[in-house]
Specification:
The complex is a heterodimer of chains A (140) and B (225). Chain A has 140 residues and is α+β, with helices and mostly antiparallel strands. Chain A is built from 4 helices and 5 strands, in the order βααααββββ. In chain A, strand 3 and strand 4 form a beta hairpin. With 225 residues, chain B is α/β, with parallel strands linked by helices. Classes of the chains: A alpha+beta (140), B alpha/beta (225).
Chain lengths: 140, 225
Amino acid sequence: MKTLYFEEVEEGDELPPIDLLLTKDFVRTYARTAGMDFPRFTDDAGARQEGLPGMIAPGVLSMGLLARLIGEWNQAAQITRIGTTFRSPVLPDCHIHLLGFVTQKDIERHAVECDIWMENHEGERWVIGTATVVLPTRNP
Amino acid sequence: MARVIDLHLHSEVSDDSRAPVEAYLKWLARKRDERPLDGIVLTEHRQFDTQSDYRALEDKYGLLILKASEVETEYGHVLVYGVNAAMLQRFDFSNVRLRAQEVIDEVARMGGVAMPCHPGRPTIGLIEHYENRPPLEGVVGVEALNGGSKKGENERVAALIDTYGYHAFGGSDAHLVSFVGICATEFEKEITNTEELVEALRAGGYRPVDFRVRRAPAQPAASGA
């Protein structure tokens, strides 16, 4: 991880992608740790009884992974807003890709807007969102 | 003048997008080699943007910027091109239960064209509703290529088009800046304004074009690693 200053970041910069195998064990552990020990997040059969195709990842986990995308791009990034839209249930035991771009710079606030999203190995975008990120500046 | 146009995208005027129009235009300028667009049509959700004037941005970026609407009906979502005062008086665009047949008939009568979007999508797409309801009359085309569709959705539309002979168009359905122009429509004739767009959409002579670039993912690490 590295520190990027506002002046070193450009509109159009790609956040280094993260490719992950999102396992069911990881999702179960996360859900139980986060006090979300519900069948939809821990058990395929229980999730199907709720009408889901199988156990799914909690939304806050997806949001956290997207925040990680920003943190690994720039350890000095301060996320002041993050918003996500869940286009599809996030089904574990599959390869996911976390992707993003810097889309706008706000010179007055030393902030950037980022597009961020999670897609599966077939390019289906399961979670999309944006984040506002304040960066350190060399010209305070 | 424009031949390649993204016919479906949402700006910050819509309630589920934060994308400023100028950010879209800057992105298209940056991605010109990948996405050679000549114009965009802003299709805001459940409303028509009567306030915004994009002529200065058109001049600055050399792109055609037109306005339309995405409305909601019992047959799913429908894009309305050529929106005018008569339509806004006739319909409450914020009503999520508009009658699709009325929208298609009345919009046509009033000088526009209404075309179903993402028809392969569950619940809000035309195909699922055709399984339980009679087909709509007067549909001239459907969005055969939608940048936000999941696997199988766009493929289902091909069968719909074969069955009903609809024209096919494409749009990104972008809500994020970086998704603008990933799918679009290529017209045989130049489009310079909304009236020409409506005329062309009614007549045919266009096709969806796909500018999506598939990235090759690295070997994934286990989650949490």
